[in-house]
Amino acid sequence: MTEATRREPGTPCWVSLMVHGLDATREFYGELFGWEFAPGPPRLGPYARALLDGRDVAGIGVLPAGSGLPGAWTPYLASDDANGMAEAVRCAGGTVAVGPLDAGDTGRLVICADPSGAVFGVWQAAGFAGTAVAGGPGTPVWNELLTHESEAVVKFYRTVFGYEPELYRTVFGYEPEPRAAGDEDRVTLLVAGRPVASVRGVGRALPRDRGAHWTTWFEVADPDAAARRAEELGGRVVDAPRDGAEGRRATVADPEGAVFTLVRPKGR
Description:
Number of strands: 18
CATH architecture of the largest domain: Roll
Organism: Streptomyces thermolilacinus SPC6
CATH superfamily of the largest domain: 2,3-Dihydroxybiphenyl 1,2-Dioxygenase, domain 1
Number of helices: 4
Radius of gyration: 17 Å
Helix content: 10-25%
CATH class of the largest domain: Alpha Beta
Protein name: Bleomycin resistance protein
CATH topology of the largest domain: 2,3-Dihydroxybiphenyl 1,2-Dioxygenase, domain 1
Low-confidence stretches: none
Domain VOC: 11-125, 139-265
Mean pLDDT: 87
InterPro entries: Anthracycline_SecMetBiosynth (IPR052164), Glyas_Bleomycin-R_OHBP_Dase (IPR029068), Glyoxalase_6 (IPR041581), VOC_core (IPR037523)
Number of domains: 2
Pfam families: Glyoxalase_6 (PF18029)
């Protein structure tokens, strides 16, 4: 595991989960990933920073009372100018729901949605750069946007963040595999030639009760055992463990329904 440094604009730098029950959620993820917790910036309301060996890996906050919104993991994309990014989102057809606002002396944030409705954050770092551990069990290692089809939404993210889209299945730095005719609708987003996230068009398989949304992948040593443990802790398995181009992975949901992926990257 290595310490994270400042990220290039557009690179995912933090993931945050918004839930209704903070204490129960902390217990679930603490048991599943071995996380410990510390208080977050008071400006953000009830908020817990998840730690591994004393280093930040993720955050958990509380949804407004009566919001009726489902729990969901949200990636934050690095920026040098949160104000300018908010304006760029609006001009490209997205919406700004929160901010730009200061989170104490840690940085400046914006909560946005792309034209398909998928929510993401923008983070302009000051005293806090974001996730401090890159790789290893219990850490976020990938973010993927699930949407109806990739073309329109990729255009939005390319316009706002300057991503280089690649029509390959490049994940975790492995060599790209050319897409065959009739292959899945998946695009990798690159920053300075490096894969940082992906967009997958799933058509009618997109959940009607959730719509387009980002998902976070967390590394684990054993996806099969981790999926079983998630069930024991009150979660559920959405997609059973299976092998793929990225490694072995399973998709699960926590007790409040927030969906995420457990993955053992290929070669680890």
